[in-house]
Amino acid sequence: MSLRVDVCIIGGGAAGLAAAASIDRGIRTCVIEKNKILGRKILATGGGRCNLTNAGCQGHGATLDFFASHGLQAFPDEEGRYYPYSGRAADVVRTLEEAVSGADCRVLTDCAAESIEVTGGGIEAADAGFRIRTSRKETVFAKAVLLAAGGKAAPQFGTTGDGYRLAKDLGHHVTRLYPILTGIRCGELRDLKGIRARGRVTLLKDGAALAQESGEIQFTEDGISGICVFNLTPLIRAEDGEAPQEAFKRCCLELDLAPDFTAEEIAGRTSSFGILTRELADRVDLEHIKAWRLPVLGIKGWRDAQCTAGGILLEEIHRDTMESALIPGLYFAGEILDIQGPCGGYNLQNAWETGMRAAKAMSRQIREGRSLQP
Ligand SMILES: Cc1cc2nc3c(=O)[nH]c(=O)nc-3n(C[C@H](O)[C@H](O)[C@H](O)COP(=O)(O)OP(=O)(O)OC[C@H]3O[C@@H](n4cnc5c(N)ncnc54)[C@H](O)[C@@H]3O)c2cc1C
After folding, report:
1. What percentage of the chain reaches a pLDDT higher than 90?
2. At 121, is the pLDDT very low, low, confident or very high (cuts 50, 70, 90)?
3. Pocket mutation for ligand 1, best pick of 32, 45, 302, 338 (most atoms within 8 Å of C-beta)
4. Nearest atom (ligand 1) to Cα of 38
């Protein structure tokens, strides 16, 4: 079977759905999604609440306007993280689904894009411009393609890195990929598993402080976790040609588990218990409460990561339209790009923003009937 559309969007996640909802009316669009449902990863974001943007993102106003135009209101917490007013990620997905169903859009779920070929003819030619073969043996012909297949983080939600392969097959380059926004492995901490403590975490590399984050530290059986820990992981990476294990050895963490107390106040105490829980106090004595050193043995893998570092080389993309500089009519949006932010709504903001920008450019391309041949 074959389907002929103006725009084919590969990936029904945050970027793909924002794009599908923003394409001009009258433009025939289809979304190809590998999972049985749309927006699977969005459902897991923000602990099921979906932290959809942050007041610190330059483009957050456009995201809020986009969702408000589809009826979804979002409100910030005291740290500027925006969540849907209902506090449910499922409502974000529902809003996007309704927006897409109101557009001229066919949705193919349980359907993976397997290859993209440039078919040659100009935009008016019968063979359109791109041929997308799918796992359902359905072939889609499109004048423009948006590759929004996400990265490699959390593959259990469908993101197994297909987008990089599809892009490479078309001549694009992908920078080194590694998992970020995940826990750090520090060795045996089984007796502390499940304990949470307010604190400040400093990442040291070659003995020098590289970055510091504050917040809730969560102890796991082999390390530490929590947003403040996640945000340090982009800095724990190997240099070009360096083995990851060598890079880890150069790093260590220093935990201040009593950030609201001065060294003098601590010196006047007899025990760390009372500031720390009993279990933590048994492990961390008063002398080390403001500077407890833990080695970095590694970071958690793709399954636990919230984001991919690295991606499609940005030099090969026109950032104002998200169109490929190598292949006219091919566009990119979302985590597949070499763009990554900290926890707090920055990565979803990137997905919505680049998805909407690509939709605007694809709509213009189709309306103007621009030839795909450079
Ligand atoms: C547990 C968790 C919590 C997170 N919480 C937050 C948060 O609160 N705030 C925030 O800003 N960010 C958060 N993130 C990160 C954020 O979810 C991602 O950065 C964002 O979803 C990326 O959007 P995307 O559209 O590029 O990719 P995705 O949303 O991952 O969508 C890509 C889609 O493409 C599909 N796909 C892949 N290959 C194919 C193929 N060959 N054919 C068809 N479809 C394909 C996938 O199934 C997937 O549905 C979180 C991530 C995780 C894992």
Report:
1. 88
2. low
3. 45
4. 49
pLDDT 10s digits, 250-277:
999 999 999 999 989 998 899 999 999 9
How far apart are alpha carbons 56 and 54 in whole angstroms? Answer: 5
User: Under DSSP, is residue 294 helix (H, G, I), strand (E, B) or coil?
Assistant: strand
Q: What atom in ligand 1 is closest to the CA of residue 16?
A: 25
Domain chopping of the chain, boundaries: 2-177+308-368, 183-300
**C-alpha of residue 39 to centroid of ligand 1, in Å:** 8
Contact 130, 115 (CB under 8 A): no
CATH number of 2-177+308-368: 3.50.50.60
Q: What pLDDT score was predicted for residue 374? A: 44
Is it the case that residue 64 has pLDDT exceeding 90? yes
Q: Specify the ligand 1 atom closest to the Cα of 334.
A: 26
3-state secondary structure of 362: helix
pTM exceeding 0.85: yes
What residues line ligand 1, using a CB cutoff of 6 Å?
10-16, 32-35, 40-41, 44-46, 50-51, 112-113, 148-150, 153-154, 158-159, 162-163, 306-307, 334-336, 345-348, 351
197-232: pLDDT as tens digits: 999 999 999 999 999 999 999 999 999 999 999 999
| 94-98: long-range contacts, CB 8 A cutoff, minimum separation 24 | 95/67, 95/70, 95/71, 96/17, 96/18, 96/21, 96/38, 96/39, 96/42, 96/70, 97/17, 97/38, 97/39, 98/70
d(CA 171, CA 327): 9
